[in-house]
Amino acid sequence: MVFEETVVLRLPFDEALDEVKAALAAEGFGTLTEIDVQATLKAKLGEDMDSYVIVGACNPALAHRALEVEPQIGVLLPCNVVVREVDGDVVVDAMDPGLMANLTGRDAVQPIADEARRLISNALDRLLSRS
């Protein structure tokens, strides 16, 4: 089962992270959360790892529509996008919003998830054209 869409960028990590947030914003997604996993694991466990940030992205209009259909869908929001360093490249993994439709079993969620998937794919395409 594929649950994400991935692109690889050849940019410095901080620049790639900024580009990810800008590409998502261009498609109507705001950044609700930003979790620096690398810093958290270092602070809490003393463990070192490569750069790894989880961006919680949300398109307010789509979230509103989904919440109207299925109030419990909030446990699946926001859409997570992982920006991580792998062997000198930056890998961007975006959650497939179709998972929300699959997990709820509600047919009315499917068109909302399809629209979210299209917008996230557009954002990833923007990244590829800029890297």
Question: What does this entry look like structurally?
Answer:
There is one protein chain. The chain is of the alpha+beta class and 131 residues long. The chain has a five-stranded antiparallel β-sheet with strand order 1-5-4-3-2. A hairpin with a 2-residue loop joins strand 4 and strand 5. Helix 1 packs across helix 5. 28% of the residues are buried. The mean pLDDT is 94.
The major β-sheet equals: 5 strands, antiparallel
The end-to-end distance, rounded to whole angstroms, is: 28 Å
Please provide the count of β strands: 5
Number of DSSP helices?
5
- Tell me the structural class: alpha+beta
Q: What percent of the residues sit in helical stretches (DSSP H or I)?
A: 40-55%
Give the percentage of residues in beta strands. Answer: 25-35%
Instruction: Catalogue the unreliable spans.
Output: none
H-E string:
EHEHEHEEHH
Strand order of the largest sheet: 1-5-4-3-2
Based on Cα principal axes, name the global outline: globular
Mean pLDDT: 94
Round the Cα radius of gyration to an integer and report it: 15 Å
